[in-house]
């Protein structure tokens, strides 16, 4: 395990050192190594559990009241993220001179916060689901009646889209790694080196918010077994929500659902 991604890690650190004209000390490299090993280990576990995560079938229970709680807490989560995203920008802009390690920390902090904003926003946005239904069900039926009128409309293969959505619902590494990185940052802060607990304060808060959000999502609905499974793989807990949220819109979309 110590040699996991060793070449890629060294190349990345080398590129950063060349760009910022700094040299990282051994303690900082140890912290980066520990983070890489942790993320690599979780990734391997994700690969071995992929078969279990893909076994999504049958009916699933939805608690509308719990879903509403999750939707409300999402606003709190996003409010914090939107406020926190300014801090690394102001910190970099306020530097009198470029400080190598600090710039790297602030840039990674900025990237991770933006990552979480995208993750949470995507999970609670069901417009793509309703758009898909509108085009592939309602408008498709009209096109079959009047092909000339809808000659401009090109629809994707329904079976291929279903396979893609199935893969996303069974877990997405690009989404899950957002949590792995935060946990890795917290772990690195406990080791001697340039990354301190103050530097990863946002990681602590994001992890705390995710603990609450995950519990609320599990109360609303869960499409895979295991509490820890959905905790460490956020996409498995969050992505099913976009299929459930239309049920909350009783003024509009719920009328289009076929029971």
Structural commentary:
This protein has 259 residues and is an all-alpha fold. It contains 13 helices and no strands. The protein has helices at 6-20, 26-48, 50-53, 64-84, 86-93, 100-123, 127-145, 158-169, 173-189, 201-220, 227-232, 234-238, 241-244. The chain is elongated.
Task: Give me a quick take on this structure.
The chain has 259 residues and is mainly α. It has helices at residues 6-20, 26-48, 50-53, 64-84, 86-93, 100-123, 127-145, 158-169, 173-189, 201-220, 227-232, 234-238, 241-244.
Topology:
Blueprint: H1 6-20, H2 26-48, H3 50-53, H4 64-84, H5 86-93, H6 100-123, H7 127-145, H8 158-169, H9 173-189, H10 201-220, H11 227-232, H12 234-238, H13 241-244
Distance between the termini: 50 Å
Number of helices, where a helix is a run of at least 4 consecutive DSSP H or I residues: 13
Mean pLDDT: 76
* Beta strands, count: 0
Key phrases:
259 residues; elongated; 13 helices; mainly alpha
